[in-house]
């Protein structure tokens, strides 16, 4: 077995070396056919959505958009004309969007709406022309705004929040928008001579079922892909960036009580805040003191049937900006830095019941963050830097010491779009006072190098990394992890090969590494077919087939522990509905006892292996309609028994005021005696309402029988001025098994919080 894995890893490395050898420096490219010139205004621009100033009339027009969906071989059917200009404070974009008023579709009036849920005009700006990172701005015909950051070429995060302004005028056959983006919102450098940025504009018109862009983007890639951008040419240089300091204080009042612990009502007022300081026009310092995340939406729960820790995404605003710089080193199952390790911990809580008995249980606990700082951004067009430091307080009730967390990242652009990066992560635990801790958990450090490959045409993507951990009393051998991944994508093929090694003694206390002492490989191949028969192409946009595999072996014996191989058929319809169906065959070897229901029942014995076959499939209906639904199923063998699962949801859009939805998951596990069988329900109704473009209300309920919990989270938000909010948040948790007859409360909280964005 070791010989087999060494051979496999050698073949993978040889395959991956080929595009690396071919990755030579490429000439600068503006595309001569997609230049848009911009000049300074000669008179003030009034933001009213009319485009009647002389500067708009004389500005060059970016028109003749190209389709991205459903086809990419023709011009867009709907007309779009874009103009740009600027003054000392703002970058202005004026756009005339051809679309009948009767066909508007929007999810709601709430800011930062999800992609594919609303008609939208899009602006993507890349001031440093690296074709990897950019600013994203989007506007609906109802004047609803969305802003985000683009990283790694095409990954869009909507968690970035900043100021910009827009006004929309609606007509029967078109809508007209006038947009003003403050230069202080952007990060850029002014250079001697002529300045140029990369830029692209896009449209998504749901009723007409058309996605289009100014600079053409092939249909296999998203419209936000920064590899496909035109050139913004500054005939007059943009203004030299000046001082940019923002203060964001907050004040919150809360009342909460933990009924499980039997604690009395806790009331209090908390004060803290953030500061954003532009050290240079492209390098930003973020400071936080006593941060509070009470307004953040709760995690969406899942039924846990895994032997390992589940991953839940970060939702706290401070950690999300520039997260691509800090949180994407390594693979998904070997991150050296995972921000949820800061301020959130699991601990053993104890309470005394009515009989005087002391009960213990494991629970997630919020850990107070005392202060933090983050320096991140561009040093120049080729170098990016990230420095992060956070300090948390001691939590005595779970015997958790105070700790300091530090992260340092340096990234260098190479070739046309690739990068080389280095990362260093340190966690230092403290005893009482400021004394560093001692013992096996006193500190943990991880250092690593990484190369990310992005070809100019975006067909080749790759990642190659090596990380090493350092801890007290650590064995010096096998405290490392490394991996190599390479993927090729074109109009028809998607092929990925990879390999990964995670040593037995590798530790990343501030990372996400659910499994150690293992080698992995996840090869994939997929083929797409675009129908040519007119009768078929009017219904099916693309269909195809594929196969994915997962192979894992333990260290140091290289014994196969997990294998999962599946084949599937898929189809994407012209209506934007999607479906797939397939079959999977898997093998699992248990090195330790495991309860397949995760309910602390009798465990299957260690040293046994199980081969299972399952069927799976899914369907997502046309989300352009007011009512949409989805369903996904798996059924078949499960360890020494059988299991079936149905997961999905229903959504109703009440345009333009919001959505009502319900998600569901039902799992039935049948095992032979004496092992436990189980039936789990996870039901999550939610309502998201927007009374205007500044007042929003949401309620999310989760009924989880596996966790024996019902969670209620309600949030009222009033955005009384740009990026300044008033929140009223109510949370409640009950035991689900006693909710109907005799509801027992676990904990309850009510929070009133105000944040205010102040420019200095």
From TrEMBL:
Keywords: Signal
Methyltransferase recorded as keyword: no
Signal peptide region: 1-22
InterPro entries reported in the protein's UniProt record: DUF5916 (IPR045670)
Record field: transmembrane: none
Gene3D superfamilies per UniProt: 2.60.40.1190
Domain DUF5916: 245-666
Official protein name in the record: DUF5916 domain-containing protein
């Amino acid at each position: 077995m070791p010989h087999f894995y060494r051979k496999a890893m050698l073949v993978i490395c040889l395959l991956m070396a080929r595009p690396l050898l071919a990755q030579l420096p490429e000439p600068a490219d503006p595309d001569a056919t997609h230049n848009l010139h911009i000049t300074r205004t000669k008179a003030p621009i009034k933001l009213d959505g009319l485009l009647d100033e002389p500067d708009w009339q004389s500005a060059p027009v970016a028109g003749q958009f190209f389709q991205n969906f459903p086809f990419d071989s023709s011009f867009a059917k709907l007309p779009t004309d874009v103009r740009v200009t600027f003054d000392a404070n703002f970058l202005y974009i004026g756009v005339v969007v051809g679309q009948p008023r009767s066909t508007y579709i929007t999810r709601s009036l709430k800011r930062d709406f999800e992609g594919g849920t609303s008609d939208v005009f899009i602006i993507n700006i890349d001031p440093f022309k690296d074709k990897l990172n950019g600013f994203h701005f989007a506007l609906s015909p109802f004047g609803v705004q969305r802003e985000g950051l683009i990283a790694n070429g095409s990954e869009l995060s909507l968690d970035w929040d900043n100021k910009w302004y827009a006004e929309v005028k609606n007509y029967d056959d078109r809508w007209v928008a006038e947009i003003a983006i403050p230069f202080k919102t952007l990060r850029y450098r002014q250079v001697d001579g002529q300045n140029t940025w990369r830029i692209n504009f896009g449209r998504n018109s749901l009723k007409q079922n058309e996605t289009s862009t100014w600079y053409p983007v092939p249909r296999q890639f998203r419209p936000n892909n920064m590899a496909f951008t035109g050139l913004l040419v500054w005939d007059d240089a943009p203004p030299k960036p000046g001082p940019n300091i923002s203060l964001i204080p907050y004040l919150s009042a809360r009342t909460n009580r933990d009924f499980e612990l039997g604690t009395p009502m806790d009331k209090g007022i908390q004060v803290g805040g953030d500061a954003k300081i532009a050290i240079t026009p492209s390098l930003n310092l973020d400071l936080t003191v006593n941060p509070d995340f009470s307004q953040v939406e709760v995690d969406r729960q899942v039924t846990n049937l895994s032997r390992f820790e589940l991953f839940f995404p970060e939702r706290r605003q401070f950690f999300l900006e520039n997260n691509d710089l800090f949180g994407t080193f390594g693979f998904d199952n070997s991150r050296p830095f995972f921000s949820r390790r800061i301020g959130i911990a699991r601990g053993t809580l104890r309470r005394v019941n009515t009989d005087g008995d002391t009960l213990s249980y494991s629970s997630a606990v919020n850990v107070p963050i005392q202060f933090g700082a983050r320096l991140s951004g561009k040093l120049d067009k080729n170098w990016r830097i990230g420095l992060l430091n956070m300090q948390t307080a001691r939590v005595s009730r779970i015997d958790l010491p105070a700790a300091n967390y530090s992260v340092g990242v340096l990234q260098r652009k190479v070739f046309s779009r690739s990068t080389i990066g280095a990362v260093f992560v340190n966690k230092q635990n403290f005893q009482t006072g400021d004394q560093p801790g001692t013992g096996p958990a006193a500190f943990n450090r991880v250092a690593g190098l990484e190369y990310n490959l992005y070809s100019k045409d975006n067909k080749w993507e790759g990642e190659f990394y090596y990380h090493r951990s350092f801890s007290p009393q650590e064995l010096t051998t096998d405290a490392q992890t490394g991996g190599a991944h390479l993927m090729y994508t074109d109009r028809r093929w998607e092929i990925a090969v990879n390999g990964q090694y995670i040593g037995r003694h590798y530790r990343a206390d501030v990372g996400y590494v659910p499994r150690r002492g293992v080698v992995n490989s996840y090869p994939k191949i997929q083929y797409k077919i675009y129908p040519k028969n007119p009768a078929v192409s009017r219904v099916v946009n693309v269909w195809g087939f594929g196969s994915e595999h997962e192979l894992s072996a333990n260290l140091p014996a290289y014994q196969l522990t997990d294998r999962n191989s599946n084949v599937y058929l898929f189809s994407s319809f012209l209506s934007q509905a999607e479906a797939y169906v397939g079959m999977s065959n898997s093998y699992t070897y248990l090195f330790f006892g495991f309860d397949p229901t995760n309910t602390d029942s009798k465990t299957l014995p260690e040293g046994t292996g199980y081969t299972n076959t399952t069927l799976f499939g899914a369907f997502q209906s046309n989300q352009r309609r007011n009512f949409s639904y989805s369903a996904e199923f798996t059924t078949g063998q499960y360890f020494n028994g059988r299991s079936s699962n149905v997961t999905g949801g229903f959504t109703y859009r009440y345009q333009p005021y919001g959505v009502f939805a319900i998600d569901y998951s039902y799992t039935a596990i049948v095992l032979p005696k004496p092992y436990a069988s189980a039936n789990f329900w996870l039901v999550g109704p939610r309502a998201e309402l927007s009374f205007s473009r500044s007042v929003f209300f949401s309620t999310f309920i989760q009924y989880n029988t596996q966790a024996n919990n019902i969670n209620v989270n309600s949030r009222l938000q009033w955005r009384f001025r740009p990026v300044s909010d008033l929140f009223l948040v109510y949370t409640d948790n009950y035991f689900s098994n006693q909710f109907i007859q005799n509801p027992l409360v676990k904990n309850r909280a009510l929070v009133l919080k105000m944040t205010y964005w102040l420019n200095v």
